[in-house]
Write a structure and sequence with these properties.
Strand order of the largest sheet: 1-13-11-5-7-9-10-4-12
Number of domains: 1
Number of strands: 13
Number of helices: 4
Helix content: 10-25%
CATH architecture: 3-Layer(bba) Sandwich
Order of helices and strands: EEHEEEEHEEHEHEEEE
Oligomer: single chain
């Protein structure tokens, strides 16, 4: 295993599938070098939850903290990648026997998503009873390789609320297809968007 950085963020492109009903991703060169005489300038339109992203508590709580108020140290530091196969959801019973090694950031690898141009019809979700276990072990950040910790059709967002109540922040849509379970250094910094409910991130890990 080398010490090179591994990009675990989804590449964003104009065919990237958005959450059903959300703002599609769009990038275009709004002004060309020929137009300006000096530079190309791009224009970006997207949801704050497009691709690999973090959820701020304001996403699901009107009184919750917004993106610029989140502690940076949540998104930088040692993380453990754990792998679960053949599961439809992840609760206490799925992770209780797995050693976290004292890591305060847990990244869960479940299944490969082959086509980012199609929103998945199903994906692995998080059960609310996982949150107390994570808190008991000192976990502060949970990363998942799914579009959300809750099902697409959920209106109560039980996992979002349970994680928040146990002081655990959320990182979604990471790409762990070729990542070997183990310990890594993680950097997944959100943009400093004032008042935002979330932010895209460039998530990278390096073996330690």
């Amino acid at each position: 295993m080398t010490n090179e950085w591994i990009d675990i963020s989804q590449p964003l492109h104009n065919d990237h599938a958005e959450w059903p009903g959300d703002t599609p991703f769009s990038y275009e060169v709004a002004f060309t070098k020929e137009d300006t005489g000096s530079v190309n300038i791009g224009k970006l339109t997207m949801s704050t939850h497009m691709g690999t992203h973090i959820d701020a508590p304001f996403h699901f709580l009107n009184e919750g903290a917004t993106t610029e108020k989140l502690p940076l140290d949540l998104y930088i530091g040692r993380a453990r990648v754990v792998e679960l196969n053949n599961v439809t959801s992840i609760g206490r019973k799925e992770l209780e026997a797995i050693d976290f090694g004292g890591a305060t950031r847990i990244l869960v690898k479940t299944e490969r998503r082959e086509d980012l141009t199609v929103f998945p019809s199903t994906f692995v979700t998080i059960e609310a009873d996982l949150a107390p276990l994570l808190k008991e072990r000192g976990v502060r950040l949970l990363g998942v390789d799914a579009p959300s910790v809750d099902a697409e059709t959920s209106k109560t967002l039980d996992a979002h609320h349970a994680l928040y109540e146990n002081e655990i922040m959320i990182l979604e849509n990471i790409v762990l297809d070729d990542v070997i379970p183990g310990d890594y250094e993680l950097i997944a910094l959100p943009l400093r968007i004032v008042g935002a409910d979330g932010s895209p991130v460039r998530a990278v890990i390096r073996p330690i």
